[in-house]
């Protein structure tokens, strides 16, 4: 039987990689007594796959995991949550009707992201980037104008590094891969409402193409925008949250 | 011991988080793994520090055992600390973030006790770096009542002298009981409002604890040691190692921490037994962990099945110095293989001797994917193997390999040491001759599959270790070792067919010898090397020989006084302050026999009177003087398959 699970990966668990996460899930299933089906062949591995790997350092609040188990399982959500560490929670599990149901990875097309600048109490003075963003460019009217112009370009060409050929970057027009690109004026997230962080807690809401056919990472999208603005971007100061994943009809995967 | 309460004892997650985006593998620093134990309130906060990176430290069974034992006590919180990788260290120093524990992010300096696990000498500079990152004075004499007590345990503390200046107290031997005794004494001392001096006096009276500041090395006119003088009355002249005789009493780890990120040994591990009866003369573990104490077969099986269930691991490994030596090995492996089939868990068996049973087992667990086979002949000729008391014969190896080739294995690795006592050119040439014979054998047995054969010969440099029969042997100079490697390279040049010779610069081994056999004066070299920038010295990419040579010359200490000098058996050696239970006379007799290339049988065939029985009896038969009849018995066959 195939199941699709919707889960969140937040807090400290954003710092473990996709492979770490798969290993963690496999062990949690074993502990919960859920028997995963293994692939045939010389090197059997459990049939478990994510809709789209989340990059190291990013949070995901609606992520999807497909599994194939031996037999039928009940109460997967509670059984699994009992075995998962803080930062990882399963919200929903549903059996996939047909045995040949498409894997989440095959149907995912779009992803929503929220990106904010990270600040901390330890790093008392604002970084040069944020300083410039706040003081020079980011009056609401200028911001909107700059963004409208950026998106009005029919084509936005960037150098996209392919995973297979790490050395060679490919010129790609990313404009068709951007469905939505909005600026968030202030933090609505209480987590960033400390007095010294609120000033810089501006960010973005993005909807970008995702999946094996066409894919754009939020970092690449922001790099293109900041390049357009002529402002350097410190990627390590970005706090990325993937909000949800959708199919071609813009329906959530579960 | 009161601590300032106005100062914050923990670091904020947010402060750590700004660094995590900038470093490799941030998962090393986040804590909160499955079955990690977090206690917000605790009477005693004990830091278990492993002076290397997370992936290495988390592979230590000792860490998992002691973590569980300490945390089972309601009033003790045991928390972990590892050496941050160089990129993280740089970030921490840049923003002034001190070393912290993974569990509650308590600053190392705010702990009550901080214990380091010393598993290899080349981790010593990491200890200093961690103390420095914690903001603690590096020298014990510079620390006061406001600082945590700095402790060390593990195999390296069987010669504690080279690091004596840095630690307040050493715990010698098995850690299961001694740490609880130590913490109980700490609590009592604190309740009575005692200062550090009184606490140290208290600890020095506990069996197995060594407080170096309460002993003074006494020197002869020629600069050699005469002995250690206790500075207060009532202290033992020698520190006897602590010994746990019944391992079944300590069913650990039952609930090990399951790391988020991949570690070096990412699997469930059960210890079969402690100690080894084979008596290889170069092997420190084989001497200091005597006598052999086995866990019961049922106990191992139960622990293994509980471990698999609670951890979710899909691989189980058995730990010991020689798997096949376990009394009930065939029955146990049969049961574990059945368990593995039921729960889809792969069994991994290191240090396996290649006999018929092992092949049956290996063939089953590696049905489709055959990993390499590993043998450790250690020396190239039978004469030299007799010298080191390694009883594997060439016939054992060729016989084992013939069978292995027939069953489909093609990848073989052989381990050798060079720089062994009495070694001649013939012994070096013998290594290449063995490789040539294996190539020939491969060609015969593998036939048209010969092209797939992959033979690696890995050569390391012998480092004499304290408490072994070879402790008196001067390590070969680096120049001599390099010459021997060149001779080997020359001999290997003529070999064809997928043979690879692996070796590295003997510089690291030279430093290891200095740190292993040094006296108390060695602390000055280590401190200077750290100041010169040394850390992660066991990592080839970070090790810098010149930094160490410079440190030795800066500190004005004769670093090679013990490492490269031909020591006399009449001489008092720095590590004689520690009593492993094995008599010095026994080691000296073994050293002499080595010179005559005369072997000593496995203790399971009869007691060889090493002396450890005065501490407790192991699996070796009851104490009796060895007889000539015993010496005539044939040696047990051996060989290894690390799979």
Defining traits:
heterodimer, A: about 250 residues, alpha+beta, Alpha-Beta Plaits, Beta Polymerase, domain 2, two-stranded antiparallel sheet, about 25% helix, elongated, B: about 650 residues, alpha/beta, Rossmann fold, four-stranded parallel sheet, 21 helices, disordered N terminus
Structural commentary:
The complex is a heterodimer of chains A (254) and B (643). By secondary structure, chain A is an alpha+beta fold. Chain A has helices spanning 18-31, 76-81, 104-107, 128-137, 140-152, 218-229; strands at 2-9, 48-50, 59-68, 88-95, 110-117, 157-161, 169-173, 178-184, 203-209, 238-246. In chain A, the strands form two sheets. In chain A, strands 1, 2, 3, 4, 5, 8, 9 and 10 form an eight-stranded mixed β-sheet that branches. Chain A starts with a strand and ends in an 8-residue tail after the last strand. The model of chain A is unreliable at 120-129 and 187-201 (pLDDT under 50). The N and C termini of chain B lie far apart (50 Å). In chain B, the strands form six sheets. Chain B has a six-stranded mixed β-sheet with strand order 2-1-3-4-5-6, covered by helices on one side. By secondary structure, chain B is of the alpha/beta class. Among the domains of chain B are: 13-240, 3-Layer(aba) Sandwich (Rossmann fold), CATH 3.40.50; 583-631, no CATH class. Chain B has 21 helices and 19 strands. The A-B interface holds A 12-13, 15-17, 19-20, 23-24, 26-31, 38, 42-43, 56-57, 83, 85-87, 118-123, 235-238 and B 12-15, 17-18, 20-22, 26-27, 29-34, 95, 97, 258, 260-262, 309-314, 343-344, 368-369.
